[in-house]
Structures
1.
Amino acid sequence: MVEKSTFKVKEGLARMLKGGVIMDVTTKEQAIIAQEAGACAVMALERVPADIRAHGGVARMADPIKVGEILKSVTIPVMAKVRIGHFVEAQILESMGVDFIDESEVLTPADEQFHINKYDFKTPFVCGARDLGEALRRIGEGAAMIRTKGEAGTGNVVEAVRHMRTVMGQVRHIMNMPDEELMTFSKDIGAPFELVKLTKEMGRLPVVNFAAGGIATPADASLMMQLGADGIFVGSGIFKSNNPPARAKAIVEATTHYMDPKILAKVSEGIGEAMKGLEISLIPKEELLASRGW
Amino acid sequence: MSKKPLKIGVLAMQGAFEEHIQILDSMGIETIEVRLKDQLADIDGLIIPGGESTTMGKMLNRYDLLEALREKGNSGFPMFGTCAGMIMMSKKVEDGLPGQPLLELMDITTIRNAFGRQIESFEADLDVSEIGERPFHGVFIRAPIIKCVNGTVDVLARFENNIVAVRQDNLLATSFHPEIAGDSRFHEYFVNIVEKWKEMHGKD
């Protein structure tokens, strides 16, 4: 019997991306640069988060023409973003053959109550999370991959670190928890009990967990990997720097050799200036992207 | 003197290398993650995992492992490639990237993403008589297929007439992912190849 688009092949694709770097790209030229650098996938979008932040207004799914061009220009998997709750944008991307859909807080939410029922789709989904409860709620809705939210478009890794430490800390906490405490813990973090139990059994988040939101340097990538990320998303960090091909390549190498400081030093040399970056505490609260989604 | 236990390297440039290591661990086999040339020194076999073949190829090239692995593979050293690993071991890849670095070890021509994009990914039971009567559950993710085989390549499994598992001497390759199938028979089969090779050629 042949079974297509099972959860196993969805979360399986996420496993195949592990140890790799997924790069935000807005044109086919950028997609080719990313592939040349060794990206394991690209994220097709209209504007990188730093520009979304600067432009303001409603940020939506990218123009299908653009997504189509990027799909044709590279052989690695292509992801694309939809607004939280906007299942029609997801239907459109699925019909185009996009390999992974990111239901993303970086775009303006379309629904302030409900996320997409990701089981309705053949295409796997990745979703952002700040803590274990949020991650398990998204998995409960059918997400096949999780990433930290971080604070996209800032070039500041501090929020991604916070979110990764929170998730990993909560997993460690569950590991030491007697089974009779799991139900109350599930209720407290607002997560499905069965997934909390599964997390304890597996000793990790039940699906692949990447770091995202503010990664700008090879050292940032290694930091997130050492904190337990399975791989790295880089958004504005590459194409907002002054030498994207060199930086992209360096971040790919830093993600593979994340435990080797000598290689990290070498790949960090002479790759030009990183994006300028933003201090999180100076961003008005209502402009923070991580608080979108629930 | 007791024999030195087997040690199998798992290429860890990118991809599902942890999954292979977990299976070998459960079989009591010692493993090492391979990212640099010196990590090849005292291994008895190498697994190239599923992942992104273009990423792996570039990293092998940049870290000077391509030639070292090619030499090993050509000298009869046991290697097992799954999905991207199979692509890496192919002599020829149709629709590969121009200049995509390959190990060019097995006399097979591979087509990348042969079934289409991710929405075409699937699971199916396969008959693989080499590893036993019970079907093996194949997980195919943006999977390649083997278009043609030459020379001394044995076909181990087909899916709807497409060749999806092959062996040539001590080289083993599958277009699906035994590392996430929950079935260790392909790994046992490979370990068996490694043991035989070690008995004949290995130092202890």
2.
Amino acid sequence: MIPIKSSIFIIFVVLLSVYTSFAKVQDFNEENFFIDVLWRKAMSVEEKQLPKIALVLGGGGARGFAHIGVLKALQEERVPVNLVVGTSVGSIAGALYCAGASLENFQNDIKDFDVGDISNFSSISLLEMLLTDRRLSNKKLEDFINARIGEVTFNQLQIPLVCIATDLITGERILLREGSVAFAARASSTVPGIFQPVEYNQRYLIDGGLSENIPVSVAKIFKADVIIAIPLSADITKNSVTNIFLTLMQAIYIQGQSLDQYNLSMADVVISPDVGDLNAANFAGAYKTIDKGYMVTKKSIKEVKIAIINKIPERVLIE
Amino acid sequence: MVFIFAGGSFGLKANLEEHQKKSSYSKALAESLIEVNIVKNKKESLKELDLLAKSFIEKGFYNRALDVYDKILRQKLPRKKVFEYYVIIGDLYNLKKDYNLSLDYYKKALYIRKNNAEVMVKIGKTFFEVNLFELAEKMFLAALKIDKKSIKANRGLGDLFYKQGIYEKAINYYIKIPKEFYEREIIRNMADSYKNLNKINEAMDILEPFLEKHIDYELTFDMGLIYMSIDNYEKAKEWLLKSLEIKANNFKNYVYLASLYDLTGEHKKAIDLFNKAYNLDSSYASVDFMRASLAYKTGRIREAKMYANESYKKAKSVFVKDQAKKLIEFLNKK
């Protein structure tokens, strides 16, 4: 029979041994380490051996500020991007990113952003719109973009970009990838019924969100190996429909929802900033979505890296 | 094993002695509480109770201290004193992690002194503890409105944004703290924030002066990782080796240093360190994976296959398992 004091002592020693072996590697996260090692190996290989990585930036009006946060985070994590496909505000964010504009400067720049910065929106012009056939112009958007990236054309971009617009007459999805980048981003963001359609090669172009709000299928056409999609879907049940503009926007969202779901199912990684409760026209509340885009991307980085590593042949990682 | 026995034996004896000490001490304290109750002079009684409460707090007897403060507050006291006691009680409940009660008392204190920045900071910190970040931010900002240079408020906001991964904002607040108040944790958080923002020079500028004056394993290791992140492998090795000098026989250090040697083609050193890591803890699939990879690179195919299979068996996550499977398939073609 072991005395009680000795029993207590033995139990204590056993527990201490268990604790110390547990504590020894308590602060070691194996998955993080492994991803780190393989990522480092992946980034040290020749560019031609890496998978083609595409970013798909969805439309969403004011919610599009979140794209700035997403792109900042991806830049910080040094995720290589070979192609950007953008719709509407996604085109604008894509234009800035692909032209190599400083996202930090842009973020400071747009703190006091107002819709009047990109259109001739005013109470007078709204009244005119209601009383006549004249719609608003978003020509200022082109100037806004050119002021930040210069008057660049698609072939001058650092990263290839495709902007999605819609042909108002035929309903076709139009891929814009030549000529003026600012013009293409403007065409992609032309909300029908509010802004005058943009004339292009005998077509009248409007917002790409009507044909493809999250253009993952376009990234597939361009043979991307890894597709990272950033949808800015609205929680449409929370939307206000108190005026013509908001009602139109709601109609667009309802129509686009099922196509969006199909597109997202084809993406390798989906990064969804929590911005669903912000109305697309609410530019006053848009700035705070930048942080949301940033934070969710930082949290999703592991997933992004895994998706890229998984597309690299084993031979390349091992040798 | 002998050391553990000796250590264990010493520990148990020390615990028993401590317990006995506490029992006799608390008995003495309880007796003095009874004596204080008998004292007729209210002023003396208050002073004694105050001292008694402080003694209880020093010894970690928070509940007893709270009982004493409860007694104190039943007396008629000037508002200034009531304020002070509310804050102390709030702090005590915070220590006990009873955050609801802590907040109650801080709010009572704030009701007496509406513009007290220090109490606002305490409320902010309490909200932070329970992950109510928006409320915490509001309180810290309110404190800053009253005291623009409040170190604690700036620190609170820095920690708040750091915890949420909003590194830029974290830095914006940390840099408002005068450098002489930079504690280790602030330095670590700032360095990590800069690293995450890819501002590597700034990260190093924060860490290096601290490490010149202090021996700190974790921060030395972090320096190694910072250099790794900018692909400066020679400097990274230097720092990781330094951290190994501070804390030898360290699994994490071995595997990171080994992976670095692998990257720079120093296979023998890499194998040696992965083996050391394996000897410390053989349960990690990633270590077997790396041993397999290195065995393949040094022409030992059979060994590589063995390690790859071990890696697959031990893998705890889907990703590691998938990679191990791919490695097995790759090696089977050899």
3.
Amino acid sequence: MRVFSIAACAAGLLFAGAPACSRPEPAARTPAAAAATQSFSVYDLGSTWRDQSGATRSLDSFRGRPQVVAMIYTRCTSTCPLAIVELKRLEAATDSSMGLLLVTLDPDADTPQVLAQYAREHGMTGPRWTLLSGSASDVRDLAATLGIRYRRLTPDDIAHSNLLTLLNAQGHVTRQHAGLADDGLISAAQSLASTARTR
Amino acid sequence: MIRLAALALPLLVQIPAGSYRPLYSTAGEARVAVATFRMDRDYVSRRSFAAFVVAHPAWRRDSVRRVFADEGYLANWAGPLDAGTATSPERPVTQVSWFAARAYCAAQGSRLPTVDEWEYVAAASATQRDASSDPAFRQHVLALYATRAARAADAGPVHERNAYGVRDLHGAVWEWTLDFNSVVVGDDSRASGSGANARDNHLYCASAALGATDPSNYPAFLRSAVRAGLTARTTMASLGFRCAA
Amino acid sequence: MKHTTTSPIPIIAARTIGAIAIATAMVLATASLTGCANADATPASGRAVVLVRTTTEAIEGQEVAVLTDAPNVPPPITRTHPTKVIVNLQTSEKTMRLADSVEYTMWTFGGSVPGKFIRVREGDLVEMHLTNAANSTMPHNIDLHAVTGPGGGAKASLTLPGGESVFTFTAMNPGLFVYHCATSPVPMHMANGMYGMILVEPKAGMAEVDHEYYVMQSEFYTHGKFGEHGLQTLDMEKGIEERPTYVVFNGSVGALTGDKALQAKAGERVRLFVGDAGPNLTSSFHVIGEIFDNVYAEGGSVANHNVQTTMIPAGGATIVEFGVEQPGDLILVDHSIFRAFNQGALGILHVTGDGNAKIFAVKKGLGVVGQ
């Protein structure tokens, strides 16, 4: 592992003497694994969205059930399908007390109809799955609150952080993980789900 | 006199359209076009922000929703509506979150500037509109950054005017931008690798560097590093804002 | 339709090379270590093997690391088992003396330049708590060369003013390692003073000596000339051109001279932990009037003996050991000698006590009147 790490950082230094390892993920104000539950509820953003059925959904309506959240867009062919694979792993590892929430970064293109089609194509059906579209401003607020970075490069391409966020039943961030879901994230999700069941 | 200043509308400077060279080019663009807009001549002062909080109690530090600002929000004030006397009320307001800054600008009928707008104006020296490649200007900006703390202790504002007539972009505090959370990425051709690599966030480390258009632009790297650390709730003693329209 | 990712091709290449290296290492390690119960990078055969290390030892207990400012070093470790070591380190920015009547706003680990010295034992689980003072203007992080992991911890530790980050690592390899800030732009954070050292003592411990000192060489690039009075700021052009204004030991001109000289008595054994933070220059480290009995070159595990001058790479370190036999001032220098004479790279080890005329005696010369 050491060989790879050094190579990665050396490349950063060599090519520009630049942001070597300053990640564009949010800087830690809490332990790096973001294992500590944050003191705020994402649901207090108070915004209103539309789900894949076209129904209006306030963030408040998600209270009471823990959620795994990812922000994706449907024209994304590379990292987003991988995020979905991770969400499905989490779906399999938990029961119905854990919700699975996908929010589009491209709300103009990803209408509720497009999201519904996407959900069918990727087998994300059933009551545990919610796919949300909203206003560009609400998307930005949610992303900025979760520490997700994104930028539209071309009409079809949005570069973005690949971050999975675990929210408890109150909407507090309990854990965040970049890339593949690790055992820690899965066990954290299981423990949240089990807390929600016994409640 | 003081009351008049508090009620005066913020002075907006008309910024002509143009382009600038961003630190990180995207999809091969060397320069990014910026449309004409207006930018506050000055940073938002503690006095102005106090007036906003009085008018909008939801943004008092003792009533703000925690999702909109972390625990440091206005914590450097003497009280919820009292910006205090230890620091001049004409100094920039700091320890404000992105949500709070945005709400302030909305209340003035304006908005936060985008990263592109802010950087476009910030590339101007006192005499040149695009001084981004001028070593003397870079050196001057680095020196301003290095000595901010010492100058913050001074009683009055700094007032360094650039070629557009905008003041104190570099000399006082870091400033919020509307899209501070724009991703930092390499260009398209280098990003065409397999998805498996894209999952590996080690690669921010190098890809961010690889996309840099000018490795000597240290002031821009510093600002970029600050933005990379922020979330919308973050407050910092060295972070304020100004509005645009 | 192409999706934009964040993975540039050079890294894919690096990854592949890394994978090959790891695979090779595994093969080598498996082959070489067959029947070898005690993994060691330098077995009796004398032929080095490549280890893919793992952690199997149980971590017993927990302690908070004692951290010291240069030239002091935390006490030797007497434990014979690995433990969890909590390291509390705070980054801060403050204006400090660079030379007489010359000030510089330094960015620090622990309020001083060089930063706090950290001492742990091979196999320890280190829990690194990095806080950034609320009045800092910049985010900071830490890349410890003793860490096996992404960015040496830098990725996990970007910390805003007023914030804290925590990560853990196991000190897998013994040795003396540099740490530094790796926040963009890295050269600026390092040129402003963000570096220090961490010693990972080998399991077998280190030989007893009478004095241990912490010395770190580094450069400062200021807009004013050497000695120009007032508050100086970074001249990045000089940095890019590798033309330092100051080359110093322990963060300022004169940090190891006069009252602040290192001390020893004739007949004592001295160990220096010497780092070179750079940001640019390699040090030709020499102690005028001594010969190093042992040099653990590059901070590694093999001792060379009877060395006059040892090279310390930027971002590297070395351990030198010697007995002092004669009273007087031993002079620490970078033997790239203009740096010592004109830029500040000079320190004193003051030796008191009685000498041995058999080792050194002046018989005739300008300093010897009336003999």
